[in-house]
Amino acid sequence: MLRVQVHLSPEATPAHACSLDTLDQAGFGVPCRYTAEAGDTLSLDVPAVNGTWRGIITADGNTLTGSWTQGGLPLRLVLARQAVAIERPRVAIDAAIPAVDVASLREVMDADMAAALDRGELAPKTGGGVAIGVIEHGARRVFVYGAVKPDSVFEIGSITKTFTALILAQMAAKKQVRLNEPVRELLPPGTVEKPAGEGEVTLLDLSDQHSGLPRMPDNFHPADPTNPYADYDEKALYAWLKSHGVALAPNAPFGYSNVGVGLLGSALAHRAGVTYEALLKQQVTQPLGMRDTAITLTSSMRARLAPGHDPSHAPARGWELDALAGAGAIRSTAADMLTYLDAQLHPERLPRSVSLVAAGRTLRSAITDSHVVHADAGPGMHIALNWMRVDETGSYWHNGATGGYSADAIFSPVRDFAVIVLSNTAPGADDFADAVAKHVVQRLSGQPAVSLAPLSK
């Protein structure tokens, strides 16, 4: 269950401004519009998440009763007027200190993490832990806090999408696909009809999140909510696609789509004639020597898998992804992810061993191509091939979450550093992995840092 809060403006115009807060996901101020229709009917449109609510308002104006639709079947959602809005959680800030280098970072982080280890997100009773990997000017460190080890394995969730993007760049470099190629042409014959209009979803549209596809397909009905993606196979994906179609609306806006990138992974695998997992190994992990990065756990990785926890710190099972593997199925370690981020920072410095693998010979150019910005992704943000780029700093990032894990990856070509944070706890109202990643970047930069200590109640 996730709490939703909506702020409606009192303006007496046909289409009003509003904002939506997803309180248990730390999402505040998502722009929306509401429209008063005939009688007591009201509709809310939230383009950023491809979501719509439609229902009725009571005569006293105190209750909205209706249904929320976001890619799947409509969900009943009742909103009750509150006397006082629930505010964004207060964020404490630690004072700035001189910029810390990698060699000194552990000592600083030990002090900054003390309260979280004692009574916060990493307290012994939580079972929570984080692995932090940092590389700066070629110097790299991995250190951990809480109930994990330096070689612990984590689910990285949607950071998987950047691997799918690199596979796309690799196959484009080998002339196996074109970025502007319609995704329809990579799928089994007859999967989906060519749209009647001019616009058609391409591989690039899927990777830069401008495909117009919903966040999730409307035939996504998990048999097991604790492992929701396990039974969504290609048959279901292609059935949905046949019904939905691949027409591309003119000037489709940025819209984060799990099904879109999952479809991209499936399409690339079909063109290559192998599974997505085999394609991942062939094009990325094997050339880079990432032996602890995979979808199916080896016996060694399974022995080192950090047990997952939900936002309340209760045990959570791992997620298995079938047709949508390209959107979030990868497991990895902090050390392997540093290898991946180091390659992002310096594709021109890839080890000589990379070129000894056939797929490695195009990896340098493919990584460089994957950083080319293609579209906007909201205020102050643009998107390359699945990597978000912050305009002000020139840094790239992506985060990820599953039912029992959360992760953040950041790299800055401008300042020559990268940070990976892996947690065995899913994000709740406070995304601790995200806070840790920001904190590390701020300590490296000598800025005031978001505090990692629990807020006083």
Low-confidence stretches: none
Radius of gyration: 22 Å
Overall body shape:
globular
Number of helices: 10
Helix fraction, binned, reads 25-40%
CATH homologous group name of the largest domain: DD-peptidase/beta-lactamase superfamily
Integer count of domains: 2
Q: Structural class given helices, strands, pairing?
A: alpha+beta
Q: Describe it for me?
A:
There is one protein chain. It contains 10 helices and 21 strands. Strand 18 (396-401) and strand 19 (406-412) form a beta hairpin. It folds into 2 domains: 4-80; 154-450, Beta-lactamase, CATH 3.40.710. The two termini are 23 Å apart. With 457 residues, the chain is an alpha+beta fold. An 8-stranded antiparallel sheet has the order 10-9-20-19-18-17-16-15, sandwiched between helices.
Topology:
Layout: E1 4-8, E2 15-22, E3 27-36, E4 41-46, E5 51-57, E6 63-69, E7 75-80, E8 93-94, H1 102-119, E9 129-136, E10 139-146, E11 154-155, H2 160-173, H3 203-207, H4 234-244, H5 258-272, H6 276-288, H7 299-303, E12 308-309, E13 315-316, E14 331-332, H8 334-345, H9 363-370, E15 375-376, E16 381-383, E17 388-390, E18 396-401, E19 406-412, E20 417-423, H10 432-445, E21 449-450
Antiparallel strand pairs: 1-2, 2-3, 3-4, 4-5, 5-6, 6-7, 8-21, 9-10, 9-20, 11-14, 12-13, 15-16, 16-17, 17-18, 18-19, 19-20
